[in-house]
Every structure is written in C-alpha cells, then in structure tokens.
Amino acid sequence: MVPWHTLDGDVGGIINVTEDITDEVKQRSMREQEARMASLGLMAGAMGHEINTPLQVILLEAQEMLAVLDEGAVDVATLRASADTIQSTTERIADIVRAMRTLSRDSRADSASNVNVGELCQNVVALSRGRLKSSRVALAADKVPPELFVRGNASQLGQVLLNLLSNAIDAVEPQADRWIKLTVAVENNLVVFRFVDNGPGVKVEHRRNLMQPFFTTKPVGKGTGLGLSVSLAIADRMNGFLRHEPDAEHTTFVFGVPVSESVASDRR
C-alpha cells in the first residue's frame, strides 16, 4: 500500500502495488526437481550394476542350497552359510532401494523435520557406491554419532549432499589416484559437511559464477549447471549455508545446516 498526496499535502488516495511471483516460484520449483533427477540419473547406471551384482550372489547361493538338498544329506553348516550370505546381500539391496525412495521423492511440500545425519549420509553413500567403484574413487567418510540430527527436509538435504559428492567424483576424474573425504562436525549449532577432493580445483575466473544457475565447467551433456545454485537455495531456505573455500589446501565445499533444537539443547 502506497499513499499519494495532493498538492496541499492531504492524502488523496492509496495505490495498491502487488507483484505476481507465481511464475518465479514455479520456475524455481521446476529447476529444483530437474536438478534432483539429474543427480539421481548420474548414479542410476552404476546403481544398476550395484544391484545386479548382489542379485547374482543371491542366485548362486540359492542354487548351492538346492544342490545340497538334492543330495539328500543336509549339510547344516553349508546351508547356514548360504542363508547368512543371502540375508546380508538382501540387506545391501534394501539399503540402496531405501536410499533411492528417500532421496528421489518429491518432498517440496513437506514441512521441516528432525533428520538423522548418520542415516542421511548412509543413503547418499549407498546411492553413490556404484559410481565411486566404477570411477575408481576412494571415499573416506566420517562415522556420524547416531544421536546427531538436523532440522530440515531429508530429500532436499540428501539432494545437496548427493550433488556435492557427484561434483567431487567428476572433479577427480583426471587424477591417477582419486580420493574424496567427507567430514561431519558440529560448529556453532550447525552440522557442517565438508567435501574435500584431490581434483585440480576451481579456476579463479570461475569462482564468481559457481553458484549461478546454468553455469557449469563440465562438458556439454554432462552437467545442467543447476546443482550448486539449487543447493545454495536449499541451504538458504534451511537457514544454513553453502560455500567454496578457495584457500583450502585441496578443493573444498562446505555445507552447513542447523542442528535439531532438541539436540542443540542437550549439548548446552
């Protein structure tokens, strides 16, 4: 509401100024969905192999059990060993499926909740394990205390972590010895995720535009240029931060999000 005045100073009326941001919100929402599916798509091919391999293990163990039964003399030790292998392998597949369900769902309308940081990291690593293996990248990740929670949206938090890990995998590709480190720490009531890799780093001339929509240094067809900009928007919405640390010894991206209030209170 903006008042306008006559020449003698009296209020002559009210001008109602409105701004339609519906299209802007829709466009932002579409960009976030596109970025999420792009991140998951990068993992999909390697993840198919990651699931197919344990399925082959289950098939072989089942065939072994049938062969033992067909012989008539039941070897309990052999059957138990095969059953244990099938159980652990099935749990591995379940981890991958659970991670995909959590991180792929469209949760833009969901309200913030307490998210277990350890489970969040496990989901991201489970989805990335196949790509890490096929790209011959060593990942060293902190073991997260089971009682550590953040306040936010699990799917969107996973999207940020998945994007940062995916970028790191791309970054180390030129190296002969490829490694990534993920550390998790609590700093000033924030859970801080640090992704460090031994890639060539971000060129000085690219740093200013890193978080801009559609900016990418990747080859045509390999990157959408939306990952970091969408991740920054998610961090801002959750009262967190996302930044590149240009002065670090190795390429470092840092993502921080508030600790769950109940956890923060327990730490005081």
The helix fraction, in percent, is 40-55%
Order of helices and strands: EEHHEHEEHEEHHEEH
The average pLDDT value, as a whole number, equals 77
- Output the strand order for the largest sheet: 4-6-7-9-8
Name the CATH class of the domain at 24-51 and 110-267.
Answer: Alpha Beta
Low-confidence stretches: none
CATH architectural grouping of the domain at 24-51 and 110-267:
2-Layer Sandwich
- Secondary-structure-derived class: alpha+beta
Number of helices: 7
Distance between the termini: 45 Å
Q: By CATH's scheme, which homologous superfamily of the domain at 24-51 and 110-267 applies? A: Histidine kinase-like ATPase, C-terminal domain
What does this protein look like?
The protein has 268 residues and is of the alpha+beta class. The chain has a domain at 24-51 and 110-267: Heat Shock Protein 90 (2-Layer Sandwich). The chain contains seven helices and nine strands. The chain has helices spanning 22-70, 76-104, 117-134, 154-171, 204-207, 227-237, 261-267, and strands spanning 2-5, 11-15, 113-116, 137-141, 149-152, 178-187, 190-197, 241-244, 251-258. It has a five-stranded mixed β-sheet. It has a two-stranded antiparallel sheet with strand order 1-2. It has a two-stranded antiparallel sheet with strand order 3-5. α1 packs antiparallel against α2 (76-104) and α3 runs parallel beside α4. The two termini are 45 Å apart. The model has no long low-confidence stretch (mean pLDDT 77).
